[in-house]
Amino acid sequence: MRSDIINLMRQLLVRKTGARLYQDMVFPAKKSCLDAIAIEATCYVCGKGLEDGYSITAKNSASGTMLFCDKHYSLA
């Protein structure tokens, strides 16, 4: 079987009648390590969160990102 493949490859390489040899090239993706920190999404003012039935919205301020519930978002 191996000799058949070698002969076939020789024939493909020797032919000059427009025959082409195609090969798939696979480049493995480089794995990267991600560091992530997760905190519970709760309101900065009252401490209510998603589990209490409130929606939480983030606002950027000079002191960083602050989370507010739908009740306190308009006050911020």
What does this protein structure show overall?
This protein has one helix and two strands, in the order αββ. The chain has a domain at 36-76. It has one helix at 2-14; strands at 56-61, 64-69. It is α+β, with helices and mostly antiparallel strands and 76 residues long.
Series of secondary-structure elements, N-terminal to C-terminal: HEE
Largest sheet: 2 strands, antiparallel
> Helix/strand-derived class?
alpha+beta
Q: Which percent band covers the strand fraction?
A: 15-25%
Which overall shape is indicated by the principal axes computed on the Cα atoms? rod-shaped
Question: What integer value in Å does the Rg equal?
Answer: 31 Å
Count of alpha/pi helices: 1
Biggest sheet, spatial arrangement of strands: 1-2
The tally of beta strands, per DSSP, is 2
Q: How much helix, percentage-wise, in residues?
A: 10-25%
Which blocks of ≥5 consecutive residues have pLDDT under 50?
Answer: none
The mean pLDDT is 79
What distance lies between the first and last C-alpha atoms, to the nearest angstrom? 76 Å
SSE topology sketch:
Layout: H1 2-14, E1 56-61, E2 64-69
Antiparallel strand pairs: 1-2
Defining traits:
single chain, about 80 residues, alpha+beta, two-stranded antiparallel sheet
Concise synopsis of the structure shown:
The chain has 76 residues and is α+β, with helices and mostly antiparallel strands. Helix content is 17%, strand content 16%.
